[in-house]
Amino acid sequence: MPLFTALYDRVLRWSAHRRAPWLLGALSFAESSFFPIPPDVMLAPMSIARPRHAVRLATITTLTSVAGGVLGYLIGLLGLELVLPLIVDAGYEPAYEQARAWFTQWGFWVVLVAGFSPIPYKVFTIAAGAMAVAWLPFVIASLLGRGARFYLVAMLLAWGGPRAEPWLRRYMERIGWLSVILLLVIVLALSL
């Protein structure tokens, strides 16, 4: 049984639910501070299912993601010693150490790029708090980076809309497994 196609079909059905924007916001918030699944997995099918609401969905995703990022920042600032063992156990320690090194070198720009990239954003939010990066630039960079990513996803899929859905469904297994491989390559590269 195809794993990613079945998940995609289920998320597409959920995206039509009247409470789906609330679930999207909750997922976005959680992913930015502690949860491993990115909100794109809900935002993409929701933007296909509701193309006229794509801007609203991207806004919800961006704002709740940044709010979750602020929670991650506070975790790093106030409770790093409590969560550091979890970071190590989850295999994020190399990424966390790399994020700390990048903050020392590039500051604001690291948050901006991390917000847009597939690298786990939560690692950067916690590292930013642990290093006491200036709060306002952190929030601004998060808004710009996360906003750019989520508006791009939402608008592209809303634009493709019903035309994109059959193509996505047909290639979902390949896209899903390629995403897993890409994530593993990133984790391996960061751990070296």
Automatic annotation (TrEMBL):
Signal peptide: none
Domain VTT: 38-156
InterPro entries noted in UniProt: DedA_domain (IPR051311), VTT_dom (IPR032816)
UniProt xrefs under Pfam families: VTT_dom (PF09335)
Keywords: Membrane, Transmembrane, Transmembrane helix
Parts forming coiled coils: none
The keyword Repressor belongs to this UniProt entry's keyword annotation: no
Domain of life: Bacteria
Residues that span the membrane, as ranges: 57-79, 123-144, 175-191
Name listed for the protein in its UniProt record: YqaA family protein
Organism from which the protein derives: Spiribacter onubensis
Upper classification of the organism: Bacteria, Pseudomonadati, Pseudomonadota, Gammaproteobacteria, Chromatiales
